[in-house]
Design goal:
- This is Propanediol utilization: polyhedral bodies pduT.
- The protein is an alpha+beta fold and about 130 residues long.
- The protein is globular and about 45 Å long.
- The protein has 4 helices and 4 strands; from the N terminus they run βαββαβαα.
- A 4-stranded antiparallel β-sheet has the order 2-3-1-4, sandwiched between helices.
- It has one domain: BMC (bacterial microcompartment) domain (Alpha-Beta Plaits, 2-Layer Sandwich).
Length: about 130
């Protein structure tokens, strides 16, 4: 079974909580977190079987309406992406630094996954707009 991560990014805490309740009966996936990351924006994620995660994100997206900022479903996310979000990846020798700036958390995670899969790079840290105002 393919494992996946899904991200739902919203401008409303109440809407996020409503989308989570709406999807509560779908237990083939697990929610691993919800965070406020910008003033007025929140995100939640789901991990599990690709089909269950897709269904959870589709349900959340349809419930979010105009409060939706972005959404994402990634199957087979690179194993270094999630530790980089937590700042847990270590690098023995740094030769160069690259910075990618994105508009949303979902785009940030997608860019990190593509970068590490498509290049000979090590993700040190993925900083997802916490405390940064657009």
């Amino acid at each position: 079974m393919s494992q996946a991560i899904g991200i739902l990014e919203l401008t409303s805490i109440a809407k996020r909580d409503g989308t989570r309740r709406c999807d509560a009966e779908k237990r083939q996936r697990r929610s691993t977190g919800q965070q406020d990351h910008l003033p007025g924006e929140v995100f939640t994620d789901a991990r599990g079987d690709i089909g269950a995660v897709q269904q959870a994100i589709e349900t959340g997206t349809s419930q979010a309406g105009e409060m939706l900022v972005d959404s994402l479903v990634l199957a087979n996310i690179h194993p270094s992406v999630l530790p980089a979000i937590s700042g847990l990846n270590s690098v023995d020798k740094r030769q160069a630094v690259g910075i990618v700036e994105t508009w949303s958390v979902a785009a940030c995670i997608s860019a990190a996954d593509r970068a590490v899969k498509g290049s000979n790079v090590t993700l040190v840290r993925v900083h997802m707009a916490f405390g940064i105002r657009r």
